[in-house]
Amino acid sequence: MKTKDRIVADALLLFNEQGESNVTTNHIAAHLGISPGNLYYHFRNKSDIIHRIFLQYSDHLRKSFTPATGSANASPAVWFHYLDAIFYVMWEFRFFYANLNDILQRDPELHLQYLAVQQELTVNLQALLREMNAQRVLAIPDEEIEPLTEVLRMVVSFWVSYQSAQSMTPRISQAVLYQGVARVLLLLKPYFHPEQGLELATLMTHYQALGAAPSDPFHK
Amino acid sequence: MKTKDRIVADALLLFNEQGESNVTTNHIAAHLGISPGNLYYHFRNKSDIIHRIFLQYSDHLRKSFTPATGSANASPAVWFHYLDAIFYVMWEFRFFYANLNDILQRDPELHLQYLAVQQELTVNLQALLREMNAQRVLAIPDEEIEPLTEVLRMVVSFWVSYQSAQSMTPRISQAVLYQGVARVLLLLKPYFHPEQGLELATLMTHYQALGAAPSDPFHK
Hints:
2 domains, elongated, TetR (chains A, B)
């Protein structure tokens, strides 16, 4: 792994574990065992590192929510794929969601990129739901696709913040984020086509079980 | 109006218009045309004023979401009441929602009060949905009442934050908040009992129209 990539990986780890505002470039360099000068050779400042992490975030969103085509939409595998991808983005970039508005407001360039990515995601999610409708997996009234997509994006984007407000000592564990995934499924549940062959209950049970886990078996 | 009440009213106005973090006790005193000393006679500091505003917030939540009883639940009036109450709390205390986690994290006493009020609200909302079920207005599966209540609280609590992330120059207008109210109704829509006599479409049209308003006719 090249030094540049190691810096990004370590920064992401530290941001997620300690909160982005508590981590400086010096902390990152110390954690890697390199000199601050070496870090500055690769990145001008912390914001530069965040931009690089943001590219990973955008890339994940772009790849994971491209709509499946045709009958693939009726397979449970595609639902596990989408719902796991929601979990992944919430977990892997939880520092970002924990402090979304602060991070965006102090970095207009990042905010612009964020808006572009969200716009692209919105288009993808709407296409995805329309394809699910076409395949008779979902039966969402046309005029509800847009507002429903918005609510789903909102729930995913602010689930971490919401959890932080709900406790004096919030802990953003994997279980807590799986509860968010289960809520996304809950919101879609009324729209599942009555004749669809998917085992919706199986999906629900799966994510509820992960949300109820007292410990985090997959915690890094 | 007593000076103490005028301080609270003016503080709320300034917090909402300029953001709580941009307003000091000196600004509030100047806006009222009183001396800082006079303000300090009534309140120890800004946090003291926020606590007083929080009492109004709690009071509103407590009074507005007490479940209606019996057949009152089948009347459109009760829906206008609840949905207008959601708008009111988002609009009247928008400074609070704009910065919820910051305000709570720097004031543990307020955070404890917030958690107590949210707990009370949760109990009320669940009772309210169960009563709607009993009156055959809604048909929410029992096991979904709890997670659905949570999602509804979340959408209301983070709608302002979500909107702030969605634009480089966000403006938290009444229309934007009515869009949030319309989303709450959208989330409940699939659960309306097929035989209920409510004109759900009328409700939806009403709040969508308010959400689409280019200007704010009711803006203070």
